[in-house]
Amino acid sequence: MRPTQTTPHTAASVPPTTATQLPQLGAARNPGTALDMAWVRSAQANTSAIERRVASLPGRRSVKGAYQAAWLARAVSCIDLTTLSGDDTADRVARLCAKARQPVRADILAQLGLPGLQVGAVCVYHEMVAPAVRALAGSGIPVAAVSTGFPAGLSPLPLRIAEIEASVQAGAQEIDIVISRRHVLGGDWGALYQEMRSFRAACGGAHVKAILATGELGSLRNVARASLVCMMAGADFIKTSTGKESVNATLPVSLVMLRAIRDYYQRTGHKVGYKPAGGISKAKDALSYLALVHDELGTGWLHPDLLRFGASSLLGDIEQQLEHHVSGAYSAPWHHPMG
User: Fold this and answer.
1) Which of 99, 209, 271, 275 is catalytic?
2) Where are the domains positioned within the chain?
3) Does the pLDDT of residue 17 top 70, yes or no?
Protein backbone atom coordinates (compact mmCIF):
# COMPACT_ATOMS: atom_id res chain seq x y z
CA MET A 1 0.00 0.00 0.00
CA ARG A 2 1.74 3.13 -1.25
CA PRO A 3 1.38 6.48 0.58
CA THR A 4 -0.37 9.19 -1.40
CA GLN A 5 1.06 12.66 -1.99
CA THR A 6 -0.68 15.22 0.20
CA THR A 7 -0.38 18.84 1.09
CA PRO A 8 0.54 20.03 4.60
CA HIS A 9 -2.15 21.16 6.97
CA THR A 10 -2.85 24.84 6.51
CA ALA A 11 -5.73 27.12 7.37
CA ALA A 12 -7.21 26.21 3.99
CA SER A 13 -6.80 22.47 4.52
CA VAL A 14 -9.79 22.17 6.85
CA PRO A 15 -12.85 24.41 6.70
CA PRO A 16 -13.64 26.44 9.83
CA THR A 17 -15.71 24.57 12.38
CA THR A 18 -19.07 26.21 13.03
CA ALA A 19 -22.36 24.91 14.27
CA THR A 20 -23.91 25.35 10.83
CA GLN A 21 -21.17 23.25 9.22
CA LEU A 22 -21.68 20.11 11.28
CA PRO A 23 -24.09 17.88 9.30
CA GLN A 24 -25.46 14.79 11.00
CA LEU A 25 -26.69 11.78 9.06
CA GLY A 26 -26.34 13.90 5.95
CA ALA A 27 -24.42 11.52 3.70
CA ALA A 28 -26.29 9.46 1.13
CA ARG A 29 -26.82 5.85 2.18
CA ASN A 30 -24.49 3.20 0.81
CA PRO A 31 -26.77 0.85 -1.17
CA GLY A 32 -24.04 -1.77 -1.50
CA THR A 33 -23.07 -3.81 -4.53
CA ALA A 34 -22.96 -7.44 -5.57
CA LEU A 35 -20.25 -9.48 -3.88
CA ASP A 36 -17.17 -9.30 -6.12
CA MET A 37 -14.80 -12.06 -5.02
CA ALA A 38 -12.10 -11.09 -7.51
CA TRP A 39 -12.02 -7.64 -5.95
CA VAL A 40 -11.98 -9.07 -2.42
CA ARG A 41 -9.14 -11.50 -3.18
CA SER A 42 -7.10 -8.72 -4.80
CA ALA A 43 -6.98 -6.78 -1.51
CA GLN A 44 -3.53 -7.06 0.07
CA ALA A 45 -1.68 -5.28 2.89
CA ASN A 46 2.09 -4.66 3.12
CA THR A 47 2.46 -4.55 6.90
CA SER A 48 5.97 -3.07 7.03
CA ALA A 49 5.09 -0.30 4.56
CA ILE A 50 1.89 0.48 6.47
CA GLU A 51 3.76 0.71 9.77
CA ARG A 52 6.40 3.01 8.26
CA ARG A 53 3.70 5.26 6.84
CA VAL A 54 1.82 5.76 10.10
CA ALA A 55 4.99 6.02 12.23
CA SER A 56 5.89 9.25 10.42
CA LEU A 57 2.43 10.78 10.77
CA PRO A 58 2.63 12.60 14.15
CA GLY A 59 5.85 14.38 13.21
CA ARG A 60 4.79 15.35 9.69
CA ARG A 61 1.26 16.39 10.53
CA SER A 62 1.42 18.86 13.40
CA VAL A 63 -0.99 21.73 14.03
CA LYS A 64 -0.62 24.45 16.64
CA GLY A 65 -2.49 27.37 18.14
CA ALA A 66 -5.79 28.36 16.56
CA TYR A 67 -5.52 25.62 13.93
CA GLN A 68 -5.18 22.99 16.65
CA ALA A 69 -8.23 24.37 18.47
CA ALA A 70 -10.25 24.21 15.23
CA TRP A 71 -9.19 20.61 14.62
CA LEU A 72 -10.05 19.63 18.19
CA ALA A 73 -13.46 21.28 17.92
CA ARG A 74 -14.02 19.26 14.75
CA ALA A 75 -13.05 16.10 16.66
CA VAL A 76 -15.66 16.91 19.32
CA SER A 77 -18.35 17.18 16.63
CA CYS A 78 -17.40 13.68 15.44
CA ILE A 79 -17.51 11.89 18.81
CA ASP A 80 -20.02 9.14 19.48
CA LEU A 81 -20.25 9.82 23.21
CA THR A 82 -20.51 6.32 24.62
CA THR A 83 -21.49 4.46 27.75
CA LEU A 84 -21.51 0.66 27.57
CA SER A 85 -21.33 -0.45 31.18
CA GLY A 86 -23.28 -3.14 32.97
CA ASP A 87 -24.33 -0.62 35.61
CA ASP A 88 -25.73 1.97 33.18
CA THR A 89 -28.93 3.60 34.39
CA ALA A 90 -31.42 5.99 32.83
CA ASP A 91 -30.09 8.79 35.05
CA ARG A 92 -26.49 8.15 33.96
CA VAL A 93 -27.54 8.18 30.32
CA ALA A 94 -29.48 11.42 30.85
CA ARG A 95 -26.36 13.05 32.29
CA LEU A 96 -24.31 11.81 29.34
CA CYS A 97 -26.89 13.23 26.95
CA ALA A 98 -26.68 16.60 28.70
CA LYS A 99 -22.93 16.51 28.09
CA ALA A 100 -23.59 15.60 24.44
CA ARG A 101 -25.76 18.71 24.06
CA GLN A 102 -22.99 20.89 25.50
CA PRO A 103 -19.76 18.92 25.28
CA VAL A 104 -17.52 21.85 26.22
CA ARG A 105 -18.15 24.45 28.93
CA ALA A 106 -20.23 27.38 27.71
CA ASP A 107 -17.59 30.00 28.56
CA ILE A 108 -14.97 28.14 26.50
CA LEU A 109 -17.34 27.74 23.56
CA ALA A 110 -18.21 31.43 23.70
CA GLN A 111 -14.53 32.40 23.47
CA LEU A 112 -14.07 29.97 20.58
CA GLY A 113 -17.12 31.35 18.80
CA LEU A 114 -18.81 27.92 18.75
CA PRO A 115 -21.92 28.20 20.91
CA GLY A 116 -23.74 25.44 19.00
CA LEU A 117 -21.04 22.75 19.13
CA GLN A 118 -22.44 19.27 19.82
CA VAL A 119 -21.18 15.69 19.55
CA GLY A 120 -21.98 13.38 16.64
CA ALA A 121 -24.17 10.89 18.53
CA VAL A 122 -24.75 9.15 21.84
CA CYS A 123 -24.05 5.40 21.80
CA VAL A 124 -25.70 3.03 24.30
CA TYR A 125 -26.99 -0.51 24.78
CA HIS A 126 -30.52 -1.30 23.60
CA GLU A 127 -32.04 -0.97 27.09
CA MET A 128 -30.82 2.64 27.26
CA VAL A 129 -32.09 3.70 23.81
CA ALA A 130 -35.46 5.02 25.02
CA PRO A 131 -33.97 7.10 27.88
CA ALA A 132 -31.38 8.53 25.48
CA VAL A 133 -34.02 9.42 22.89
CA ARG A 134 -36.03 11.25 25.57
CA ALA A 135 -32.97 13.11 26.88
CA LEU A 136 -31.89 14.21 23.39
CA ALA A 137 -35.33 15.25 22.14
CA GLY A 138 -35.09 18.40 20.04
CA SER A 139 -31.29 18.44 19.94
CA GLY A 140 -30.81 16.81 16.54
CA ILE A 141 -28.25 14.44 18.09
CA PRO A 142 -28.93 10.84 16.99
CA VAL A 143 -28.92 7.84 19.29
CA ALA A 144 -26.75 4.89 18.25
CA ALA A 145 -27.35 1.44 19.68
CA VAL A 146 -24.82 -1.37 19.81
CA SER A 147 -26.47 -4.54 18.62
CA THR A 148 -26.22 -8.12 17.28
CA GLY A 149 -24.96 -9.72 20.46
CA PHE A 150 -22.41 -6.99 21.17
CA PRO A 151 -19.50 -7.41 21.79
CA ALA A 152 -18.98 -11.08 20.81
CA GLY A 153 -21.66 -11.33 18.13
CA LEU A 154 -22.26 -15.01 18.88
CA SER A 155 -25.97 -15.09 19.65
CA PRO A 156 -28.30 -16.82 17.12
CA LEU A 157 -28.80 -14.83 13.93
CA PRO A 158 -32.59 -14.42 14.37
CA LEU A 159 -31.99 -12.92 17.82
CA ARG A 160 -29.38 -10.52 16.45
CA ILE A 161 -31.76 -9.36 13.73
CA ALA A 162 -34.60 -8.98 16.26
CA GLU A 163 -32.31 -6.89 18.47
CA ILE A 164 -31.63 -4.50 15.58
CA GLU A 165 -35.35 -4.18 14.84
CA ALA A 166 -36.16 -3.53 18.50
CA SER A 167 -33.56 -0.76 18.78
CA VAL A 168 -34.81 0.92 15.61
CA GLN A 169 -38.37 0.68 16.94
CA ALA A 170 -37.20 2.31 20.19
CA GLY A 171 -35.84 5.29 18.25
CA ALA A 172 -32.21 4.50 17.47
CA GLN A 173 -31.13 6.26 14.27
CA GLU A 174 -27.84 4.38 14.02
CA ILE A 175 -27.01 0.74 14.74
CA ASP A 176 -23.48 -0.44 15.51
CA ILE A 177 -23.46 -4.14 14.60
CA VAL A 178 -20.66 -6.66 15.20
CA ILE A 179 -19.72 -9.11 12.49
CA SER A 180 -19.04 -12.82 13.02
CA ARG A 181 -15.26 -12.98 13.19
CA ARG A 182 -15.32 -16.67 12.30
CA HIS A 183 -16.45 -15.82 8.76
CA VAL A 184 -13.32 -13.71 8.27
CA LEU A 185 -10.94 -16.14 9.95
CA GLY A 186 -12.35 -18.99 7.87
CA GLY A 187 -12.34 -17.00 4.63
CA ASP A 188 -16.10 -17.47 4.22
CA TRP A 189 -16.71 -14.12 2.54
CA GLY A 190 -20.07 -15.17 1.14
CA ALA A 191 -21.37 -15.85 4.65
CA LEU A 192 -20.07 -12.48 5.89
CA TYR A 193 -21.73 -10.72 2.95
CA GLN A 194 -25.10 -12.39 3.53
CA GLU A 195 -24.94 -11.70 7.27
CA MET A 196 -24.18 -8.03 6.67
CA ARG A 197 -26.97 -7.77 4.09
CA SER A 198 -29.46 -9.15 6.61
CA PHE A 199 -28.30 -6.64 9.23
CA ARG A 200 -28.57 -3.81 6.72
CA ALA A 201 -32.12 -4.83 5.83
CA ALA A 202 -33.13 -5.03 9.50
CA CYS A 203 -31.86 -1.48 10.09
CA GLY A 204 -34.38 -0.03 7.65
CA GLY A 205 -33.87 3.73 7.67
CA ALA A 206 -31.24 3.64 10.43
CA HIS A 207 -27.63 3.96 9.41
CA VAL A 208 -25.55 0.85 10.06
CA LYS A 209 -21.98 0.79 11.32
CA ALA A 210 -20.17 -2.52 10.85
CA ILE A 211 -17.77 -3.28 13.72
CA LEU A 212 -14.95 -5.45 12.38
CA ALA A 213 -13.23 -6.15 15.74
CA THR A 214 -9.94 -5.75 13.88
CA GLY A 215 -7.81 -6.90 16.80
CA GLU A 216 -9.34 -10.38 16.38
CA LEU A 217 -9.12 -10.76 12.59
CA GLY A 218 -5.58 -12.15 12.44
CA SER A 219 -3.99 -9.92 9.77
CA LEU A 220 -4.21 -6.56 8.06
CA ARG A 221 -5.10 -8.36 4.84
CA ASN A 222 -8.16 -9.81 6.56
CA VAL A 223 -9.03 -6.30 7.74
CA ALA A 224 -8.86 -5.01 4.16
CA ARG A 225 -11.00 -7.83 2.81
CA ALA A 226 -13.57 -7.66 5.61
CA SER A 227 -13.85 -3.90 5.06
CA LEU A 228 -14.62 -4.39 1.39
CA VAL A 229 -17.16 -7.16 1.96
CA CYS A 230 -19.06 -5.15 4.58
CA MET A 231 -19.19 -2.13 2.27
CA MET A 232 -20.35 -4.28 -0.64
CA ALA A 233 -23.13 -5.54 1.65
CA GLY A 234 -24.30 -1.99 2.41
CA ALA A 235 -22.50 -0.80 5.56
CA ASP A 236 -22.79 2.97 5.94
CA PHE A 237 -19.73 3.04 8.23
CA ILE A 238 -16.97 0.59 8.98
CA LYS A 239 -15.73 0.65 12.57
CA THR A 240 -12.53 -0.76 14.04
CA SER A 241 -13.55 -2.25 17.35
CA THR A 242 -16.10 -2.82 20.06
CA GLY A 243 -13.71 -1.30 22.59
CA LYS A 244 -13.83 -4.62 24.47
CA GLU A 245 -11.01 -6.39 22.60
CA SER A 246 -7.42 -6.51 23.87
CA VAL A 247 -6.34 -4.49 20.78
CA ASN A 248 -8.68 -1.82 19.52
CA ALA A 249 -8.20 1.13 17.13
CA THR A 250 -4.66 1.60 15.79
CA LEU A 251 -3.25 3.80 13.06
CA PRO A 252 -2.07 0.84 10.90
CA VAL A 253 -5.54 -0.70 10.96
CA SER A 254 -7.03 2.73 10.24
CA LEU A 255 -4.82 3.21 7.19
CA VAL A 256 -5.95 -0.16 5.78
CA MET A 257 -9.61 0.62 6.35
CA LEU A 258 -9.34 4.14 4.92
CA ARG A 259 -7.64 2.79 1.79
CA ALA A 260 -10.49 0.28 1.43
CA ILE A 261 -13.04 3.11 1.77
CA ARG A 262 -11.19 5.11 -0.90
CA ASP A 263 -11.04 2.12 -3.24
CA TYR A 264 -14.75 1.45 -2.75
CA TYR A 265 -15.63 5.09 -3.43
CA GLN A 266 -13.47 5.27 -6.56
CA ARG A 267 -15.07 2.12 -7.97
CA THR A 268 -18.71 2.65 -6.97
CA GLY A 269 -19.15 6.36 -6.24
CA HIS A 270 -20.61 5.52 -2.80
CA LYS A 271 -19.12 7.19 0.27
CA VAL A 272 -18.73 5.10 3.41
CA GLY A 273 -17.90 6.53 6.82
CA TYR A 274 -15.14 5.52 9.21
CA LYS A 275 -15.24 5.07 12.99
CA PRO A 276 -12.13 4.31 15.05
CA ALA A 277 -13.15 3.12 18.50
CA GLY A 278 -11.43 1.92 21.65
CA GLY A 279 -8.25 3.29 23.18
CA ILE A 280 -8.50 6.82 21.77
CA SER A 281 -8.41 8.91 24.93
CA LYS A 282 -6.00 11.81 24.23
CA ALA A 283 -6.46 14.93 22.13
CA LYS A 284 -3.14 14.32 20.38
CA ASP A 285 -4.35 10.89 19.29
CA ALA A 286 -7.51 12.40 17.81
CA LEU A 287 -5.34 14.84 15.83
CA SER A 288 -3.35 11.95 14.36
CA TYR A 289 -6.54 10.17 13.24
CA LEU A 290 -7.94 13.38 11.76
CA ALA A 291 -4.68 13.93 9.89
CA LEU A 292 -4.75 10.39 8.51
CA VAL A 293 -8.35 10.73 7.33
CA HIS A 294 -7.50 14.10 5.75
CA ASP A 295 -4.48 12.64 3.95
CA GLU A 296 -6.27 9.55 2.65
CA LEU A 297 -9.81 10.76 1.95
CA GLY A 298 -9.71 14.56 1.97
CA THR A 299 -11.68 17.20 3.84
CA GLY A 300 -15.02 15.79 2.68
CA TRP A 301 -14.68 13.00 5.25
CA LEU A 302 -13.90 15.33 8.17
CA HIS A 303 -17.55 15.69 9.20
CA PRO A 304 -19.77 13.63 11.51
CA ASP A 305 -21.77 12.18 8.63
CA LEU A 306 -18.61 10.30 7.52
CA LEU A 307 -16.31 10.27 10.57
CA ARG A 308 -16.96 9.30 14.18
CA PHE A 309 -14.77 8.58 17.18
CA GLY A 310 -16.10 5.91 19.52
CA ALA A 311 -15.03 7.42 22.83
CA SER A 312 -15.96 8.95 26.14
CA SER A 313 -12.77 9.92 28.01
CA LEU A 314 -11.43 11.56 24.83
CA LEU A 315 -13.87 14.42 25.25
CA GLY A 316 -12.50 15.37 28.68
CA ASP A 317 -8.95 15.65 27.39
CA ILE A 318 -10.02 17.72 24.39
CA GLU A 319 -11.99 20.05 26.66
CA GLN A 320 -8.88 20.59 28.79
CA GLN A 321 -6.85 21.41 25.68
CA LEU A 322 -9.47 23.88 24.47
CA GLU A 323 -9.52 25.59 27.85
CA HIS A 324 -5.76 25.90 27.70
CA HIS A 325 -6.08 27.49 24.27
CA VAL A 326 -8.43 30.23 25.49
CA SER A 327 -6.97 30.77 28.98
CA GLY A 328 -3.30 29.78 28.73
CA ALA A 329 -3.64 27.44 31.71
CA TYR A 330 -4.63 23.82 32.29
CA SER A 331 -7.32 22.92 34.79
CA ALA A 332 -7.95 19.71 36.70
CA PRO A 333 -10.09 17.05 35.01
CA TRP A 334 -12.88 17.52 37.55
CA HIS A 335 -13.52 20.95 36.01
CA HIS A 336 -14.81 19.04 32.93
CA PRO A 337 -17.19 16.37 34.24
CA MET A 338 -18.83 13.93 31.84
CA GLY A 339 -22.23 14.31 33.46
Assistant:
1) 275
2) 23-335
3) no
